[in-house]
């Protein structure tokens, strides 16, 4: 399972009728978006062009590869608990080839939209939605320069592996908040690059590590507060995920393939032990993901 296939946009890496790649009102602002974006549009365009389309997330599927997906599913259930989400509007920011938009429509009844600044990411997401038989509007635009009709239009905003690529985390979250209605909820997920995942990435895939801003849970919470949001809860997710260690990017092929196989075997073992409660609880040192759920002040 690649990282992006569970929501994040890198390390290992979810329709409506086709639209024009970028209409005039949706054209990205290079000046705004380039400030502090450590990854950039070209990076993601290259990543997406090399990958096949993921299947929409199905939380009822079984098997070791569902371990991470089901953990994310539990986070979403908690995030929307007590809210009548049927018919409400949800936007995924950084939606390129996201497996989660069809899931969010099916599981919670959201009317979905997606925004991404790469044309190929938008095209792939439209194809994913079309294959799933899910309607939704996918717009090619910069998150800092939204279409006017998107401002204050959504009951929920989701970003999975997005805000940690911007040097000004609070500024990025402040931009995401513009899409929410008062009282709307934002769900933010990032990789824990301050923990084991980041430590290993420095060795196995330094270029990939360098496009991230490492953040602790406390720093992510503080960034939400600086963006003017009321934080409901935030936590580390899962005790470990060896599949995120980036061994697929190391060394020659003769070394890389055994390393990937070994990492997959270790990941499966860790997942099996976790299912039996035989590994540490989620923690800052070894947990691979951080979630934060907050609301826009009324």
Structural overview:
The protein is of the alpha/beta class. It is 35% helix and 17% strand. It is built from ten helices and seven strands. The protein has a seven-stranded mixed sheet, with helices on both faces. The model is unreliable at 1-34 (pLDDT under 50).
Please specify the SSE layout and strand pairing.
Layout: H1 30-33, H2 41-49, H3 67-79, E1 89-93, H4 100-108, E2 111-116, H5 119-132, E3 136-140, E4 154-160, H6 169-177, E5 180-191, H7 196-204, H8 206-210, H9 217-226, E6 229-237, H10 253-275, E7 289-296
Helix pairs in contact: 2-5, 6-9
Report how far the terminal alpha carbons are from each other. Answer: 39 Å
Q: Percent of residues in beta strands? A: 15-25%
Oligomer status? single chain
User: What would you call the shape?
Assistant: globular
Helices and strands, in order, run as HHHEHEHEEHEHHHEHE
- Biggest pleated-sheet summary: 7 strands, mixed
Return the structural class. alpha/beta
Proportion of residues in helical segments: 25-40%
Low-confidence stretches: 1-34
Give the overall pLDDT as a whole number: 84
Keywords, separated by commas or semicolons:
17% strand, alpha/beta, 35% helix, 298 residues, disordered N terminus
């Amino acid at each position: 399972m690649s990282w992006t296939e569970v929501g994040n946009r890198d390390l290992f890496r979810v329709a409506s009728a086709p639209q024009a790649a970028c209409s005039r009102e949706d054209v990205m602002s290079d000046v705004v978006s380039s400030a502090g974006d450590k990854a950039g549009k070209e990076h993601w365009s290259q990543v997406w062009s090399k990958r096949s389309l993921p299947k929409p997330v199905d939380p009822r599927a079984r098997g070791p590869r569902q371990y991470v997906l089901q953990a994310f599913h539990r986070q979403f259930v908690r995030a929307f608990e007590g809210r009548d989400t049927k018919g409400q509007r949800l936007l995924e920011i950084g939606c390129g080839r996201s497996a989660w938009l069809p899931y969010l429509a099916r599981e919670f009844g959201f009317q979905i939209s997606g925004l991404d600044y790469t044309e190929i990411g938008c095209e792939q997401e439209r194809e994913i939605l079309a294959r799933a038989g899910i309607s939704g509007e996918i717009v090619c635009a910069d998150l800092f320069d939204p279409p006017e009709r998107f401002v204050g239009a959504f009951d929920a905003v989701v970003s999975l592996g997005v805000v940690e690529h911007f040097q000004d985390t609070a500024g990025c979250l402040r931009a995401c908040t513009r899409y929410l209605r008062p009282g709307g909820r934002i769900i933010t997920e990032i990789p824990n690059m301050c923990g084991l995942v980041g430590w290993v990435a420095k060795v196995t895939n330094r270029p990939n590590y360098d496009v991230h801003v490492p953040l602790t849970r406390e720093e992510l919470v503080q960034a939400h507060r600086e963006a003017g949001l009321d934080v409901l809860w935030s936590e580390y997710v899962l005790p470990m995920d060896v599949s995120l260690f980036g061994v697929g990017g190391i060394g020659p092929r003769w070394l890389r393939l055994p390393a990937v196989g070994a990492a997959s075997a270790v990941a499966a073992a860790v997942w099996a032990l976790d299912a039996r409660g035989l590994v540490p609880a989620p923690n800052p040192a070894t947990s691979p993901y951080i979630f934060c759920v907050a609301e826009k002040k009324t």
